[in-house]
Write a structure and sequence with these properties.
three-stranded antiparallel sheet; globular; CofD; eight-stranded mixed sheet; Rossmann fold; cytoplasm; Putative gluconeogenesis factor; 39% helix; Gluconeogen_factor; alpha/beta
């Protein structure tokens, strides 16, 4: 069902639609994996401000852009065998003080970063080796640090430290970890956004996976200027320490506020009831409750709303139905292509 506008499925295909997906975390690969099955040119722009887990440890040891989200995105778009993907994703469980907990892929990305001297060229090299169908671009060529101001006026630095505060966040911004230079995205990132038919934000943690990318000044400006359909895939569940009790319109409102205007043109929101009897809080202790629908609030921000049963719920876990989401994105991308021709 579509709320607020009538959707058209565009059949005539003069070229593959160009879809840019911006974000990080576990939700992004689900959508990318399904988009890969569509006839589209995909570019994934991946967050580089993660400071937790294996990524954070490597970042501290060798000052590399955190590789975890990049690793997962590469796998989601790769055409190598499943066995090779499993090796790339394998995480050491030994008691070694350094290797314990590290994924092999993270170590490979760190090594290539050292060989090439920068993360962007490292990822392009690895994309060729992994037969990636599309493009994977780090949001910045330098590691970035996430900063947050809370509603109470206090400030915190670092992704993990911010969420651990469990306070309502007022705004976030990024700084260059290694220097006082202004963070910036490299030119291929900006060109991908400029040429896109659809720019997709999410799904993923609002303040720590999506906004860090948009707060890179020239990347945010590219999103503001693009003629593409700007689509936000709203999270299914609220997230502890970030979006406690947020509605879908509040998610969109935060993004628009950070961008300085109503730039989200379409939002995909789940309209189906979640079977909470299947939900195991022990598995998803960071999630609180389903995101509430506020269609009026979304329309007040000039946002088209597409609502459907976007849930893929199995084994007590809740994910987006990647195939349904991907089809909606492709429909919107073709519609944007038609408008550009007109």
């Amino acid at each position: 069902m579509t709320t607020g506008a009538t959707r058209t499925v565009w059949i005539t295909k003069s070229r593959r639609p160009k879809v840019v997906v911006i974000g990080g975390g576990t939700g992004l690969p689900v959508v990318l994996n399904s988009l890969k099955d569509q006839d589209a040119e995909i570019t994934a722009i991946v967050t580089v401000s993660d400071d937790g887990g294996s990524s954070g440890s490597l970042r501290n040891y060798i000052n590399v852009v955190p590789p975890g989200d990049i690793r997962n995105v590469l796998v989601s778009l790769s055409d190598i065998s499943q066995e090779e993907k499993d090796i790339f994703q394998y995480r050491f469980d030994s008691s070694d003080s350094f290797f314990s907990g590290h994924a092999i892929g993270n170590l490979i990305i760190a090594a290539l970063n050292e060989m090439h001297g920068n993360i962007f060229d490292a990822v392009q090299s690895l994309s060729k080796m992994m037969q990636v169908d599309g493009y994977v671009y780090p949001a910045s060529n330098e590691p970035l640090t996430l900063n947050a101001e809370f509603v109470d006026g206090t400030v915190q630095v670092g992704e993990k430290e911010i969420t651990d505060m469990d306070k309502r966040i007022k705004r976030v911004w990024v700084t260059n970890t290694k220097s006082a230079d202004q963070p910036e995205a490299v030119q291929p990132v900006l060109e991908a956004i400029e040429q896109a038919d659809a720019v997709v934000l999410g799904p993923g943690s609002l303040f720590t996976s999506i906004l860090p990318n948009l707060m890179i000044p020239n990347l945010g400006e590219a999103v503001r200027k693009t003629r593409a359909e700007v689509i936000y895939i709203c999270n299914i569940m609220t997230q502890l320490g970030e979006t406690d009790h947020f509605s879908d319109s509040e998610h969109v409102g935060v993004i628009n506020q950070h961008l300085g205007g109503n730039y989200i043109t379409t939002t995909l929101v789940n309209g189906a009831k979640i079977d909470m009897s299947k939900f195991d809080p022990a598995d998803y202790d960071a999630y609180i409750e389903p995101v509430k629908n506020d269609f009026a609030g979304l329309r007040q921000q000039g946002c088209r709303v597409i609502t459907d049963d976007f849930i893929d719920q199995h084994s007590g876990l809740v994910f987006h139905d990647g195939q349904k989401v991907a089809q909606e994105i492709i429909n919107l991308a073709y519609a944007a292509m038609a408008r550009k021709k007109g």
